[in-house]
Amino acid sequence: MGTALKVLKLLDSFSLQQPELGLSQIARMNQINKATALRYLTNLADYGMVEQDPQSKLYSIGTAPLRLANLREAAKPRLTAARIVMKAQVLKVHETMHMSLLKSDQLQTTLVEETQAHSVRISIGTSEILPLHATASGIVSLAFGPRNLLQHVLDGSLPTYSEHTLTNPDRLMDLVDETLHKGWCESVSGYETGVHGFAAPIFGEEQTAIGAIACVIPQPRVTSDLRSAVLDALSIASKEITSVYGGQFPANYRLNQLQTS
Amino acid sequence: MGTALKVLKLLDSFSLQQPELGLSQIARMNQINKATALRYLTNLADYGMVEQDPQSKLYSIGTAPLRLANLREAAKPRLTAARIVMKAQVLKVHETMHMSLLKSDQLQTTLVEETQAHSVRISIGTSEILPLHATASGIVSLAFGPRNLLQHVLDGSLPTYSEHTLTNPDRLMDLVDETLHKGWCESVSGYETGVHGFAAPIFGEEQTAIGAIACVIPQPRVTSDLRSAVLDALSIASKEITSVYGGQFPANYRLNQLQTS
């Protein structure tokens, strides 16, 4: 690993939990001596990647990333970048994928990338509101999204969309727990009969899901091979789109847990 | 300059005008050979600071800055950081400073940092709306802000606040031109008699002013020494707060032109 990359990796020392760090702490976290850590930090500070508080002497992320983030957003807006990620995965699994984002307590389909490989495929409109208790994307949002979302859904009614819709609050909470544990969700015919959905979370800045990336497949086509290919694709898309949104994965969310179902 | 800083400086090659660049172009812009440029870019790409389009092979800013920018914002929100910048400058010039931000076509005082050094000082409320044609902050916003703002002001009425308020559209346009050229604005008693105001722009992502940083002084205290100290302070504050907002200075705006009035 080149020096420059080692210097950049120092930035990984900072987190929401530890936004400010002292020199010794950074040296220890990166298993380097203090002189080296200081040299690296000075390089980062010279570019504005980190800054040091003149009083406390603690380091934190600087302002250069703000400028670069704005440049990035102007050049490659998030939705365009997310679409590119989805296109690549749809080409691998040959099934329709969609991305949905939470707007306050509603989950809204924002991007749809239809497969062109099958004439029988799931067609979804963008801006469609997905019921939180009846779709894989919804369950994922309940599991990883804002804390009060699940309570809000449980406080409301749980409408029936098909004979498989989960309308029992206890069973819904069980599925949310299972999803929290697995990192992804599978929903069979919960919203529409014959539609098999898989979804994984997209995380935002606060390590909270801001939405979900899903793959929807006509039931008869789901095989165990396709299932594992889809989980692979969702794992990659979840990671890359979280990155596109500048999001942070929760510490206990294992990116590869999707595959080890 | 260490290698790591040289690697980071490569990020300066990207701009709103040139968000995507090829290897040769980057090498040329940084006066290094292509092998070195490739090595540097690979380091940056490994951390996600840049990314390469698989088809066009062009490089652009990656997604790592988005994540870092969000971390920064969570740890040090913009307003807090801007206030720290202002405090440092107020301690130098011993006069009240305020920062105002444009909300659509209104300029609103957002932060006020009063000097404690004088009992006679300017007191301003936050959330006060500043008239665009009658304050130094307003003129700066007209000069460097969104294109349609000046026309909008000229289309409306130009109310009188004091006997020195500029109400003649031609004279207003002259002052805007002069401000564009100088990079800052001075307004004497335009809004309130006896108040001498100096202001410099704060730029946002699109190289357009999102607001202004100003220093307001009771008229009798303005000397040529204080004037030049204030312009120094505004120059620093303008640069640092633009950075706090992730903004970009227009290519033709010289940061130090404030001093060379």
Could you describe the 3D structure shown?
Chains A, B: Pfam families: HTH_IclR, IclR_C. Chains A, B: One of its GO terms (biological process) is negative regulation of DNA-templated transcription. Chains A, B: Residues 57-247 form the IclR-ED domain. Chains A, B: GO terms for molecular function: DNA binding; DNA-binding transcription factor activity. Chain A is an alpha+beta fold and 261 residues long. Chain A has two domains: 3-67, Winged helix-like DNA-binding domain superfamily/Winged helix DNA-binding domain (Arc Repressor Mutant, subunit A, Orthogonal Bundle), CATH 1.10.10.10; 76-258, Beta-Lactamase (2-Layer Sandwich), CATH 3.30.450.40. Helices cover 41% and strands 18% of the residues of chain A. Chain A has helices at residues 3-9, 23-29, 34-47, 64-75, 78-93, 136-144, 148-155, 169-182, 224-244; strands at 50-52, 59-61, 96-103, 106-113, 129-130, 185-188, 195-203, 209-218. A six-stranded antiparallel sheet of chain A has the order 5-4-3-8-7-6. The longest helix of chain A is centred in the C-terminal third of the chain and has 21 residues, at 224-244. Chain A is elongated, with a radius of gyration of 21 Å. The interface between A and B is large, with 48 and 48 residues.
